[in-house]
Amino acid sequence: MPRENMASLIQKIARQARTTFKNCGSSPIGENSKGFLENQAKLRNLLHEIRAEDLNIAPRKLDPSPISVPHNPPVTYMHICETGAFSMGVFLLKSGSAIPLHDHPEMNGMLKVLYGKVSISCFDKLDNPPDAASEAQFNPPVLPYQKDALRRSMLRSIGEYTEHSGPCILTPKKDNLHQINAVDGPAAFLDILAPPYDQDDGRDCHYYKVLENGDVKLETGEQKEMWLMEIPQPTDFWCGAEPYPGPQVTL
Predict the structure, then answer these.
(1) I need a labelling partner for 150 at 20 to 30 A (CA). Which of 37, 45, 137, 171 fits?
(2) Is the pLDDT at 152 greater than 50, yes or no?
(3) In angstroms, rounded to a whole number, what is the distance separating the alpha carbons of residues 222 and 237?
(4) Which residues contact 242 (CB under 8 A, 6 or more apart)?
């Protein structure tokens, strides 16, 4: 059962998200503007409080049944609410599953683990200098038709998050690409994206694979420049849907 007076916490989060991101669909957000940073801090503090029990979500146990199409997807999503400014829902990952490396074009995001543990690898996109891809050496070699799909990036961090961690934050320029892996069992996280994905408005989701140094261990504070290739959605990843069992959110 939700903690006392916690039935309204997800409602408070939704209202604060609406306030924080109310202009992001129509004009760029000044990431360093005082008003945005103050509202973002309020939202971050609210997210730090949320727990799975507040959403009537019980931590899942290990599922021995094999992942199969369409009955047992590796990841499922609980939709909570969506406006023109933001979307909010819960992703549930089975043990050993992952949400592959993907981007959030011109979007902000906040991710808060509800149970379990996830490893998040965060990347920034970098500009491609002329002929940069031609000068780089890849193993195996990149074919000529693939060079338009290459993207320079900066691997900024690889970190583990639990329900006791603060939220993971992405912006249009910083940590905008990430991969999320369930670690040591099932996991779930609350996800806010602002504005929502919208293919018709240029915010489609793109997937990538790392071309160089895929097994990377970063020292604290270390960053590493890497090449990515845009790819179709991996065939071993798809997302199912299930009903949201928590307190109703109205906006």
Answers:
(1) 171
(2) yes
(3) 30
(4) 76, 77, 78, 92
Per residue in 23-39, pLDDT tens?
Answer: 764 455 566 688 899 99
**Each residue of 17-41: b (16+ CB within 10 Å) or e?**
bbebbbebbeeebeeeeeebeebbe
SS3 sequence, 89-133? EEEEECCCCEEEEECCCCCEEEEEEEEEEEEEEEEEECCCCCCHH
Distance CA 14, CA 70 (A): 31
Q: Which residues of 117-140 are buried (b: 16+ CB within 10 A; e: fewer)?
A: bbbbbbbbbeeeeeeebeeeeeee
Q: What is the pTM of this model?
A: 0.88
CA distances from 20 to 17, 38, 46, 99, 109 (A): 5, 9, 12, 26, 11
Q: How far apart are CA 19 and CA 33, in angstroms?
A: 14
